[in-house]
Queue: 2 jobs
Job 1
Amino acid sequence: PLYNQPRQFHLGMFEIGRPLGKGKFGRVYLARERSSGFICALKVLYKAELQHGSGVEKQVRREVEIQSNLRHPNILKMYGHFHDSKRIFLILEFAGRGELYKHLRRENRFPEWKAAQYVAQMASALRYLHRKHVIHRDIKPENILVGIHGELKISDFGWSVHAPNHRRTTLCGTLDYLPPEMVKPHGNGNDNSYDEKVDLWSLGVLTYEFLVGEAPFEDTMVMTHRRIARADMTIPSFVSPEARDLIKKLLVLDPDKRLPLDAVQQHPWIIKHCVKGE
Ligand SMILES: O=C(O)Cn1ncc2ncnc(NCCc3cnc(NC(=O)Nc4cccc(Cl)c4)s3)c21
């Protein structure tokens, strides 16, 4: 397999298959490594699009360095990377059932047993990441893929960093998943520094979106900001009391008061729906 291949890779080593999707910065293709027949996903980033010297090339380098020493069943593996004159290539584990958000949109919302199993897998992956002092910072359905056996794979560490962190680059994209300490930086006294507990908030938003089919603070930009800052959300009555309890224990303004990941895995709602010993 790929990880005991020679470290240097090049494009000629791969047969390129069908496009898997079109991300913001580039396309992803199914690929097969010729000598071993190993199937993987190849993400192609065009250097021209990554403005030379901008934060993005550094971001890709940091992602590669963070990702290359992560090994967990619910984290999409990056086996390596290489580049030619115009492009950077990321060699990634292929997620056989594609993007989680497409499943969520198609099913509208997940049944509680499925949502609980997904949350348990996310908690397991986040515990692993936090033990390595990695904060993902961008946990949302768009960054979660589904493996061939239906298991979740956190992917796209383009925004992950080592904790604790002081953010400089402005975040773009949806605000829905950002915690209060990242949308109103001066709330915690010192300027926008934060730690792994941002991923706890995002896990709460994810749990809500799995069960309800939309994010808890979804609104206009200004209103989303305000509602996040006040943790102002309503949980529909069809959500079970146990699930409601977990959401309310994660979507807490004070990062130190959010339910820690080991307690998430022991929560009655998770225990009730998850098969023992995964
Ligand atoms: O292709 C799809 O749309 C869905 N799909 N379907 C199956 C499948 N199997 C594996 N991977 C997929 N997609 C790639 C997921 C990524 C993982 N890691 C990334 N890292 C990254 O993009 N980094 C990055 C980019 C640009 C700038 C910066 Cl700063 C960082 S993207 C798959």
Job 2
Amino acid sequence: MNHDKLITNIGQLILPKRSSQALKGETMKHLTVKEDAAIAISDGKVSWIGSSQEAQQIHAEGRIDARGLLVSPGLVDPHTHLVHGGSREKEMTLKQQGVPYLEILKQGGGILSTVEATRQASEDELYQKASFHVERMISHGTTTIEAKSGYGLNTDTELKQLRVTQLLKETYPINLVSTFLGPHAVPQSFKGNEDAFLDSMTLLLDTIKEQDLAEYTDIFCETGVFTLEQSRRFMEASLEKGFGVKIHADEIDPLGGTELAAELGAASADHLVAASDEGIKQLSESDTVAVLLPGTTFYLGKETYARARNLIDSGASVALATDFNPGSCVTENLQLIMSFAALKLKMTPEEIWNAVTVNAAHAIGKDDVAGSLEIGDPADIVVWEATNYHYIPYHYGVNHTRIVMKSGQILWERKEGNAL
Ligand SMILES: O=C(O)CC1=NCN=C1
Ligand SMILES: [Zn+2]
């Protein structure tokens, strides 16, 4: 057989285990790593995997010498607020003065100031800005991204954000999963009338389904935002309409969003910094993936991180994400989150790699096309400027990618001799 491409001389090839459900507890500790390997690609898919020795018998049009470097599947970022207008650098001073996140929101800042900027921005301006961030994510090794709306808080702007995500899907050859986060905050015009606002966002579900603008819905279940009961109502309505559901749960106050996610069979429960022991237990007995966002905890200057060790050791499945957004975690770099997972969540390198590949793919229903490299899988591949898989979480705050491929096509490559 003549393959299209052959990557030879791979120091370590990371091969996360593909399974029908996310890796849970003990199984997260295992990571298959093939030393001195090679991988072939045909028609955009993985067509052969073997040793460098065996690769000598393999015929391919194009060859890439990996020079003994590390190779992995493309990274999966299952929680971003990618499409938004404006930025919130001016809030840094308030944060430094210790003004809490929810207080800034209450004063009309935070999410609500991004809402203002997003409402003002044209669809094309939102698209141009989001494109810039998508390209930066790709250059950092991410080839599958979840993108939420939630900065419109009115029909027109929520649909505008969702249309921008659709346009990004048509422009970039990456996997893009769209989530409707209409109930992200309560706009000033509905202050004191939260239920009426939630009803208006629930009414949008039919249109979003008809226009196929989102696969999931999400809600910010938090003090001063949406209650547990309001979250239940919105999530049940979403399930009824055929959406998958997600929830920003127990980020700051323990309202019980984690338990609700497990009860309703949510695809994921995200944040979980204040998740209760009961919530962790129920999550570990469910198929709901715990998506942890240590970059947000760091950025908000908090001391307490999500209890990743309790989650994994109690049998839950854990994924990691950037939570890229203009206010509480301003980074597209999932590699940095891998470092926070090691430094602050005490996750092992094996758990971390599973959390940014197979488990992250399960959290957004893309486990059939992302997060692993088995024969027939899309050849979403990263060649790293590192020789082993421990190195990426260890050396933080920089970009370690050398080559980023989606379906066998090189999307980004470090220029020769360019150490930047
Ligand atoms: O602050 C933001 O813009 C994003 C966010 N939503 C809920 N937590 C953080
Ligand atoms: Zn978020």
